[in-house]
Amino acid sequence: RDTTEEQGEAFGVNLIYSGNFFGCVQCGQYGTTRVQLGINPFQFCWNLKPKEQFDIPEAVLVYSQEGLGGMSAIFHRLYRKRVCRGKFRDQERPVLLNSWEGMYFALSEEKLLGLADEAVKAGIELLVMDDGWFRGRNSDTTSLGDWVEDKEKFPNGIQNLAKKVREKGLEFGIWFEPEMISYESELYKQHSDWVIKSHCYSPIQSRNQLVLDLSNPKVCEYLTEAISEILKDGNITYVKWDMNRHLTDLGSTFLDRESQGELSHRYVLGLYSILEQLTESFPDVLFEGCSSGGGRFDAGMLYYMPQTWTSDNTDAVCRLKIQHGTSLLFPAISMGAHVSAVPNHQVGRTTSLETRYLVAAAGNLGYELDLKKLSQGELEQIKKQIVQYKRLRRTVQFGEYYRLADPFTENQAAWNFVSEDGKQVIFSHVQILARSAYRIPTLRLRGLDPKAEYKNTETKEVFGGDELMYAGITIPRVRQDFSGTMIVFEKI
Question: Distance (Å, rounded) from C-alpha 46 to C-alpha 265?
């Protein structure tokens, strides 16, 4: 109970699994503590025949005497270096521009090429075409499962668009939601039996969609082939893999009566089999996981996809809590974080471009807005942000991360990164609400060399490492909500 970020015993348990799980912590009659973590027993059973074995999901157990921060550091190193794999594990991740909040379903070749031109000017490295590119997809009521390009929007084809974007100097990415199906789709007309549903009643829709039965090898084969057909020419180098609803009405027309309780786990095994084939076949494609925002941010998916879209809520103030909480287990390089338009599309809040950038720069930076709707001053500011982030991203993505203030309990959030070689330090602070009278915060940095000196790269002031860690930085009083401060130090 006395454990803090910096001191005290901390135990961490996490499952490397992407399905239904159950976690339980109980105090025993003699004051002992029992922790259980595993597959959720609700609606689960497995018929284990003689001489068969069942492989359970692996659990990661972490112990630290250096508080929650020490626990997080172990998780971060383990997941970044030992669970993530492939060529992108050790590569700096690109700054991207996603079309979703800027265009939603109203995509076209002309619009995206225009967006690409603006992206190049801003210094962005990857253009991502989100939902709305496939046949008949003009709203969220139709077409999931029909992974064929919409010829009305893209008369020259997706591959031609991707090639043109890459000729401009950008990589090209695409959105899928492969595990889902719409009533209004060719796939449903042909294979209504591929849907997870109870035989007792009509299946419940969520976001106007149903879930495909990945326990069925034919469904897995179809999805693997459909996605491979889009990726095969090599012009697409990034995939955002979405899943916008969870499983309900657990029932499978593929499994027999005695095996229905195996559906939820076999679904995960089917998903992993698809991802195993796709990541092996397309090692040069960066896959990013996404599930109703961050609903499937887990170590099982990190094995196939080295980063995850942290949340569909792009509001900078909400993101302070979201990213703080996520960082307990997962490293910054696994977190997708975007600067979006204001008023924010999820909560209606208006925050400065500077603060939106500061929060998004604590992960893999992206932008999710229509650059053509911004003022010249805002575009110039974004260019400067991207230039700075490219100087800092090695430290953000591969350095050590320290939480300095808790937005769940304080009127502020703060953190700092220290580069692998210890030469660069990034300190960030956000004041949530302005107040008339309050104790001016002093933040003590962590992870520095107490015997070294550090120079503020902007003001050129020099501080001792011991001073920054034990006396700290005083944040000046600011009469403004949602104000942010970033200071970069170089070790002398």
Answer: 9
* Residue at token pair 């650059």: 371
DSSP 215-282: TSHHHHHHHHHHHHHHHTTS---EEEE---S---S---SSS-GGGGGGHHHHHHHHHHHHHHHHHHH-
pLDDT tens-digit map of 33-64? 999 999 999 999 999 999 999 999 999 999 99
Give yes or no: 449 in active site.
no
* pTM for this entry: 0.96
CB 338 within 8 A of CB 360: yes
Query: Catalytic: 242?
Result: yes
Element (DSSP H or E) covering residue 164: helix 158-167
User: What's the pLDDT score for residue 415?
Assistant: 98
Q: pLDDT tens for residues 106-144?
A: 999 999 999 999 999 999 999 999 999 999 999 999 999
Distance CA 358, CA 378 (A): 15
β-pair partners for 347: none
Please report the pLDDT score of residue 295 as a whole number: 87
Segments of 17-100 assigned E as strands? 21-27, 33-39, 58-64, 96-98
pLDDT value of residue 395: 98
What confidence tens digit (pLDDT) does each residue in 431-480 have? 999 999 888 999 999 999 999 999 999 999 999 999 999 999 999 999 99
Write out the H or E segment, with its range, that includes residue 189.
helix 186-190
What is the reported pLDDT for 293?
Answer: 74
Q: Cis (ω within 30 of 0) for the bond into 343?
A: yes
C-alpha closest to that of 10 among 77, 74, 76, 63: 63
Which stretches of the chain score pLDDT less than 70? none
d(C-alpha 410, C-alpha 56), whole Å: 40
Q: Which of 90, 117, 140, 312 is catalytic?
A: 312
H-assigned helices in 24-124: 67-78, 100-103, 109-122
Q: Which CA distances in Å does 155 have to 110, 134, 244?
A: 11, 12, 28
Active-site option among 146, 242, 298, 315:
242
Q: CA-to-CA distance for 179 and 209, rounded, in angstroms? A: 10
173, amino acid identity: G
Cα-based torsion angle of the residue sequence 224, 227, 228, 229 in order, rounded to the nearest 10 degrees: 130
Q: Which pLDDT does position 292 carry in this prediction?
A: 83
3-state helix, strand, coil in the chain (%, to 5): 30, 25, 45
